UniProtKB/TrEMBL annotation:
Residues 473-626 form the Helicase C-terminal domain. InterPro entries: ATP-dep_DNA_helicase_RecG, DEAD/DEAH_box_helicase_dom, Helicase_ATP-bd, Helicase_C-like, NA-bd_OB-fold, P-loop_NTPase, RecG/Mfd, RecG_dom3_C. Keywords: ATP-binding, DNA damage, DNA recombination, DNA repair, DNA-binding, Helicase, Hydrolase, Isomerase, Nucleotide-binding. Pfam families: DEAD (PF00270), Helicase_C (PF00271), RecG_dom3_C (PF19833), RecG_wedge (PF17191). It comes from the Bacteria. Plays a critical role in recombination and DNA repair. Helps process Holliday junction intermediates to mature products by catalyzing branch migration. Has replication fork regression activity, unwinds stalled or blocked replication forks to make a HJ that can be resolved. Has a DNA unwinding activity characteristic of a DNA helicase with 3'-5' polarity. Belongs to the helicase family. RecG subfamily. The keyword DNA repair applies. This is ATP-dependent DNA helicase RecG. One of its GO terms (molecular function) is helicase activity. Residues 285-447 form the Helicase ATP-binding domain. Its EC number is 5.6.2.4.
Length: 691
């Protein structure tokens, strides 16, 4: 059912070339259609339904007064400003304007000369002459003019688009739009939801007596309906993408499992119950004739790589290739070495491809991939235009949130003989509500059990005033036969400054830890230098490794039992948890020292408290979501996912579940109703998720 388009806002992604100035401003807000205006709900409300006497008005709170103007002047000290002295029967109020037009002077003088009243809205504060409002909103009114009958909405806007103009456009959209409900009466009752039309009207123009607290805090039943509808649109879009992908063909990788059994037989450890469970889930997916799109989550050290290796074995046994892509060279190379050690004894060819390889080696690796090398491990180099695979059946992406949607899609496009299955892995746990909403188009497997023998890591919070004690603890650990990491601070996302901090820290520690071998690794080192340093640390030749966050994931040195993170307050919680996971990999008692600078901000204190009190990555992620919201968790994936403007994943977790269940039923039993709902909320902007 096509939606009728509003006059000033045509349905388009961006304003057309010849669009009016108003259309361009609306376009900046994503308002391209009448429905977009209808669903552009207020940020907050102002109460202009009552007038308060000047002497009874509270200070520093938005308030409306009605006054007469007794004097108007332009003053020049301390700076040029327009000042109007006003009064009502209870007292005097000064209005002050630091930026003003000649027309404003004239308006105020006319009000004074004609004895007209001003209705003024703003916050009263103490000023040089007494009670004053600075830059209030005002209008001239007749004696006894009626007050508004609803709260005044304040909308998200952009420069040059006044609230008054936006209110007028939204009011018109509200009057002219089709507000027919996309849910039937039985669904509304079952879900305890208000009708859509009543909810939209109430939020745009709240009547007198409405519960203002519930309205401002998004807890009113009208807000509940809007938030549910938004979540339902997101679920419908994602599930529809999921179903569309299941209609596409992919190679059936239903191997007998001989290679996987050989791999398991030669391992020096047993799979945990959780690893066995997720491996079975992946094996079942690979045997289907549609592309697997599975996210494998597991905390730091839970053993995701061996599960990926088993998946690769299944593809290889069926005569297909597997590709394994990781975001950094250190991590990719570590995977290459581990996978080679496991798979080459089984007669599997494993190729290595990274951007830093010399031209001849790179060309040789590309030729291996094109000729059918069974497993190709590498960095972003795998998705370059000159890389081809003979029969790519499985694409594995590690630390998937570090890649954009487009990059993951490029790897899948390498499957010339059909769409390959895709396994994405993440050691950054995704909270359940986030997984249910933003990842509803994926199947999710979770390894929720650590292998036996992992020693608990003690976390210590230490002020940088006690840095000398920490240096002493590092020396003591090394003298006891252990090794240590010292991670340098993150400096305002500047790689150049991060590098300098690492170089300076290395120089200082080399002096303070005289007699010990102190190494340095950072992102700007040449790959062979980086590899040599990491190999020396793994072999115990380097006792203390000073590093930037290049060691965040994948580095596995069981003898390292101490991690020091300098300026820990500058790191995100996921990063701190990842870094902490680099120790505790052997049988020795391990510790992670979070060095912080004082004074700590409130947010910094809250973050460090979470990491100090929790070792479970999922609980850390849940609390992190409360602190930061979903944006950073979702990351580059956002480019394909309808983002949430009104629903709050923590506060509205119950709605996420209800929306997910209803989306499944609508797509199965009532596709036209699902289509109407999607058209209202996403219009022409719905994108099928491809990666």
């Amino acid at each position: 059912m096509a939606e009728k388009k509003a006059g000033p806002a045509k349905a388009a992604k961006a304003p057309a070339k010849g669009a009016s100035a108003l259309q361009q401003k609306l376009g900046k807000l994503g308002l391209h259609s009448r429905n977009d205006l209808l669903l552009h709900f207020p940020l907050r409300y102002e109460d202009e339904t009552a007038v308060v006497p000047v002497n009874e008005a509270p200070w520093d709170e938005p308030v409306q007064v009605e006054v007469r103007v007794t004097d108007v002047s332009i003053q020049f000290r301390p700076r040029r400003q327009l000042v109007a002295r006003c009064e009502d029967d209870s007292g005097e109020l000064w209005l002050r304007f630091l930026n003003f037009y000649g027309s404003q002077v004239k308006q105020l003088e006319t009000a004074r000369d004609e004895g007209r009243k001003l209705r003024v809205f703003g916050e009263i504060r103490g000023g040089f002459f007494g009670s004053e409002m600075v830059h209030p909103r005002y209008k001239s009114v007749e004696e006894g003019s009626a007050l508004p009958q609803s709260l005044t909405p304040v909308y998200p806007t952009t420069a040059g688009l006044a609230q008054s103009a936006l209110r007028k456009l939204i009011g018109k959209a509200l009057a002219e739009s089709d507000l027919a409900d996309t849910l039937d009466e039985a669904q509304l009752q079952a879900l305890d939801l208000e009708p859509f039309a009543a909810s939209a009207r109430l939020l745009h123009a709240p009547p007198p007596g409405v519960d203002e607290f519930a309205l401002q805090n998004h807890r009113h039943p009208a807000w509940r309906r809007i938030k549910f509808d938004e979540l339902l649109a997101q679920q419908l879009s994602l599930r529809r993408a999921y179903l569309a992908r299941r209609e596409k063909g992919a190679p059936r990788l239903d191997a007998p499992g001989a290679l996987a059994r050989q791999l398991l037989a030669q391992l020096s450890f047993q799979l945990t119950g959780a690893q066995q469970r997720v491996w079975q889930e992946i094996a079942r997916d690979l045997a289907e004739a549609h592309p697997m799109q599975r996210l494998l989550q597991g905390d730091v050290g839970s053993g995701k790589t061996i599960v990926a290796a088993l998946a690769a074995c299944q593809a290889i046994e069926c005569g297909w290739q597997a590709a394994f892509m990781a975001p950094t060279e250190i991590l990719a190379e570590q995977h290459y070495k581990k996978l080679s050690a496991w798979l080459e004894p089984l007669g599997i060819t494993v190729a290595w491809l990274s951007g830093s390889l010399k031209s001849a080696k790179k060309k040789a690796a590309q030729q291996e991939a094109a000729a059918g090398a069974q497993l190709v491990v590498g960095t972003h180099a795998l998705i370059q235009a000159d890389v081809d695979f003979l029969r790519l059946g499985l694409a594995i992406v590690d630390e998937q949130h570090r890649f954009g949607v487009a990059q993951r899609l490029e790897l899948r496009k390498k499957g010339k003989a059909g769409i390959p299955h895709q396994l994405m892995m993440s050691a950054t746990p995704i909270p359940r509500t986030l997984a249910m909403s933003y990842y509803a188009d994926l199947d999710v497997s979770v390894i929720d059990e650590l292998p036996p023998g992992r020693t608990p890591i003690r976390t210590k919070l230490v002020s940088d005033a006690r840095r000398d004690e920490v240096v002493g603890a590092v020396r003591h650990a090394v003298e006891s036969g252990r090794q240590a990491y010292w991670v340098c601070p993150l400096i305002e996302e500047s790689e150049k400054l991060d590098l300098q901090a690492a170089i300076d820290t290395h120089a200082i520690l080399a002096e303070e830890l005289e007699g010990l071998s102190v190494g340095l690794v950072h992102g700007r080192l040449k790959p062979d230098e980086k590899a040599a340093t990491m190999a020396a640390f793994a072999a115990g030749e380097i006792q203390v490794l000073v590093a930037t966050t290049v060691i965040e994931v994948g580095v596995d040195v069981p003898n390292a039992s101490l991690m020091v993170i300098e300026h820990a307050e500058r790191f995100g919680l996921a990063q701190l948890h990842q870094l902490r996971g680099r120790v505790g990999r052997g049988a020795h008692e391990s510790a992670c020292v979070l060095l912080y600078a004082t004074p700590l901000s409130q947010t910094g204190r809250a973050r460090l408290k979470i990491i100090y009190e929790n070792t479970d990555g999922f609980e850390i992620a849940r609390q992190d979501l409360q602190l930061r919201g979903p944006g950073e968790f979702v990351g580059a994936r956002q480019s394909g996912v309808p983002l949430l403007r009104y629903a709050d994943l923590e506060m509205d977790a119950d709605l996420v579940e209800l929306a997910r269940d209803l989306a499944e039923r609508l797509l199965r039993d009532d596709p036209p109703r699902a289509e109407r709902h999607l058209r209202r909320w996403l219009g022409s902007r719905e994108e099928l998720l491809k990666a």
